[in-house]
Amino acid sequence: MRVLGFITKRPIILSLVLGLIVSSLSYFFQPLFPYHSIAHRGASAYAPENTMASFQKAVALGFDFIELDIRMSKDQELIVIHDADVKRTTNGEGFVRDLTVDELKQLDAGSWFHPNYSSEKIPLLSEVLDTFGGKINLLIEMKFPENETNMTEKLAHTLYEYFEQGLDPSTVKVQSFHIFEIKKFHQLCPEVSAGILLSKPLDMFHLASYRSFASFLAVHYRLLSKSLVNQALFFDYEIYTWTIQDQPLFTVMQKLGVHGIISNQEKKKTSKFTVD
Ligand code: G3P
Ligand code: CA
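That is the input. Now the predicted structure with calcium ion docked in place:
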């Protein structure tokens, strides 16, 4: 009571305390916007990343998208793997670009995660498209396309082959940190939504000019704020965020109003306020 009396007799402190209460309450009651759940390298908290097992797990868990990374083999095939070299996620050694598909297919891409996955192989993009195209949406990240001969052209060409066989272009999105390659991809394949991965802020001028070829921004969660979301929405971008691992961050991102959350795991449905 004495504290209350102290505060109410001091208008400045009182207004500060009231402001704090109002802003906390308004955050608490902010709506939780629905979002696309995007399984980062597949459902990679539960199965080895970027393998058919992790993609299968994402489908089983009901994710809306799988996110996957592509690189090129020595014989110019599109390969699904995150790192430039195979050491971390297989029992082999060497750079992906120095190994042929036959050599890459010898490797065990699952035992590093758990012995149960010892039969997992590094997938080709075509294998992922064959098995998962049309079953779940795909978010394909081109890894360092600027360092590869014709990765962007090869991806566009490959996707068109699948579109001709009936795959719906609206079920595929392509992203990269390399803005020029995303621009090139959009020119080659305008039917597919293309996006820019961001780990640094973009000014309004660049936000405006990139919108002619990019329809979404995939933003590192530490960079996201209400003002960045509002700027992106002003230019009609979709906003995805990566890589959300802590459960409370799902709620923070939903309150910011992002369209997609890229995560290795599901959001646990513990809160009665959750709408998705
Ligand atoms: O989709 C965004 C995210 O995948 C980018 O980071 O290193 O996991 O490919 P990284
Ligand atoms: Ca990625």
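Residues 67, 69, 141 surround calcium ion (ligand 2) (CB under 6 Å).
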